[in-house]
Every structure is written in C-alpha cells, then in structure tokens.
C-alpha cells in the first residue's frame, strides 16, 4: 500500500496534536496561567499558612545554617556580614531546587491531563518556573531589607548582577528540568537522581563558605577549582554575592579575583545555558510524542 500524505491545511490553521518548542508557548499564555493557579491551589489546599511557607521554609533553613556554620564553626567571623552572605546564596539555591525538582515531576504529576487532551507539554515544566518565582520574590524582599539594614546601597552594577544571576539560574534549572522531566516519564529513577543532585547542590556551591576556601585547598589553577567555578549555579550564587554582600563586606574578606570577573563569567555561563536550554527543548519535544502512551 502506498502511504497517503496528509492534505495541506488552509492558511492560518495548524495541525492539532503536533509537539512544538518553547517559543510557541507565547500563544498559550491563558493555559499557562491556569496551570500556575492550579499548582498553587493544590499545593496550599487545606494549608493554614498558605504562601507564608515561602517565608517559613527559607527562614528555618537560614537559622540552621547560620547557627551551625556561622556560630559553631565561626564562619561569621571570617565572612562578615555572614547573614547576608548566607541568605543571598540560599535564595539562589532554593530557586534552582524548586524549578528543577518540580519540572522533573511536572509531566508525571499531570498524567491525567497528558492522557486525556493535547496541549503543549512544555507548559508543565514552564509553569513550575512561574510558581517558583512566586516563592522567590518574598525571599528576595527579605534579602533586600536585610542588606539595606547592613548598609547596602543599590548601584547599577549590583542590580545588574542580581538580574543576571536570577536569569542564569532560571535558564539553567529549566534546561535541566526539561531534560530530566522528559526522561522521567520512561524512567522514574530520574526523580531520585535529581533529589541527590539537589541534596548536594548547597554544598557544591559557595553558599555556606567563601569560594576562596576551594581555591586555597585545591589550588587556584587546579582543574577541580576551574570545574567548580564553571558551575552555573556557583556563578549565580557569586553574582548574588556581588549584588548584595560585596558592597557591605569588609575589603579584607572579599574574594576580588572572582568578583572582578563574575559578570563576564555570568554572561558566558548564560550563553552556554541558553544552548543547553535549546538542547533540552529539542529532547523534550521529541520524547513528548510518546508521553501519553508511556503514562
């Protein structure tokens, strides 16, 4: 039998059920808004505190790390003001962790929708970015207030570093979330792998300690140090340090060697992560054709 090719569609119409990339989601803003509302409503259903958990969780995390690392291990003496240094890193890692963790589970978690109707599958991981931003903004407000109390005064370089760091971590987390989210449909072990990554993320980026300790231990020119500094999450954390901690820190505790180049490192890392996002989008789009059957 000869294969019958599909008839061309009239102008202005497109064939339904065809997987497309992230760029096409602009025309599905209403669906994206509905998914974000659903995620927030389900997450805080029957919750007493509701969105207040956006303050409670990072606050408890900060308190534990501050007293263990800052007081018991005396890091607050070598990295003043340690509270700003610590919290500026925590908000970055929390944003990364929430996007990556939820994006990995987004397709499986919306299995009934995937099986019943067709809609762009990228809407699910993309909605996790917007939900994460809803939780990120209250933490950012607390960070800004704390930095102002510590003597921080905003300047163009600081604001640019904060914006670049936020965009970098969003693009990096979404790129990985698309990859892991697509693979997780067929191999559920992916969720456990991502959980392991998120568990060590706070320790393998300069959130609790100054990056100078890594350079002193392995050597400034060591390949391990270069690999550590090339981590986009490390660069994003250092960008937030440049934005909020660096202006208030004492000159003797600033890591000037990295701070001087952190903006350039951020731009380069963002370009690389944009390429990774393109790869993740292509892989997700290709594998999404079988999501309904796999689920």
UniProtKB/TrEMBL annotation:
Membrane-crossing residue ranges in chain numbering: 48-70, 82-103, 123-149, 161-187, 194-214, 262-280
InterPro entries noted in UniProt: ABC2_TM, ABC2_TM_bact-type
GO cellular component: a single term: plasma membrane
GO BP annotations, alphabetical order: lipopolysaccharide transport
Pfam families: ABC2_membrane
Every ABC transmembrane type-2 domain range: 49-287
Compartment list: Cell inner membrane; Cell membrane
MF (Gene Ontology): ABC-type transporter activity
Membrane topology (UniProt): Multi-pass membrane protein
Keywords from the named record: Cell inner membrane, Cell membrane, Membrane, Transmembrane, Transmembrane helix, Transport
PROSITE patterns in the cross-refs: ABC_TM2 (PS51012)
Homology family: Belongs to the ABC-2 integral membrane protein family.
Protein name listed in UniProt: Transport permease protein
Organism: Demequina lignilytica
Phylogenetic classification of the source organism: Bacteria, Bacillati, Actinomycetota, Actinomycetes, Micrococcales
């Amino acid at each position: 039998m000869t294969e019958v090719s599909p008839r061309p569609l009239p102008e202005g119409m497109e064939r339904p059920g065809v997987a497309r990339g992230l760029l096409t989601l602009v025309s599905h803003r209403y669906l994206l808004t509905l998914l974000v509302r659903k995620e927030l409503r389900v997450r805080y259903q029957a919750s007493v505190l509701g969105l207040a958990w956006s303050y409670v969780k990072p606050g408890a995390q900060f308190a534990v790390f501050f007293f263990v690392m800052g007081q018991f291990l005396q890091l607050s003496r070598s990295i003043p003001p340690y509270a700003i240094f610590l919290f500026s890193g925590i908000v970055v890692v929390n944003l990364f962790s929430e996007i990556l963790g939820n994006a990995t589970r987004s397709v499986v978690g919306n299995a009934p929708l995937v099986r019943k109707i067709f809609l762009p599958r990228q809407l699910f991981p993309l909605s996790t970015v917007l939900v994460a931003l809803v939780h990120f903004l209250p933490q950012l407000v607390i960070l800004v207030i704390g930095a102002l109390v510590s003597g921080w005064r905003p300047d163009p370089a600081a604001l640019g570093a904060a914006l670049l760091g936020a965009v970098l971590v969003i693009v990096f987390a979404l790129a990985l979330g698309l990859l892991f989210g697509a693979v997780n449909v067929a191999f559920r072990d992916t969720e456990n792998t991502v959980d392991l990554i998120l568990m060590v993320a706070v320790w393998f980026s300069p959130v609790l300690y100054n990056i100078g300790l890594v350079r002193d231990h392995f050597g400034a020119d060591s390949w391990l140090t270069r690999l550590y500094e090339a981590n986009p999450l490390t660069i994003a954390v250092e960008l937030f340090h440049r934005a909020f901690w660096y202006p208030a820190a004492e000159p003797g505790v600033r890591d000037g060697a990295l701070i001087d180049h952190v903006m350039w490192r951020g731009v380069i890392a963002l370009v690389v992560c944009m390429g990774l996002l393109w790869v993740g989008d292509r892989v997700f789009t290709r594998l999404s054709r079988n999501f309904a059957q796999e689920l």
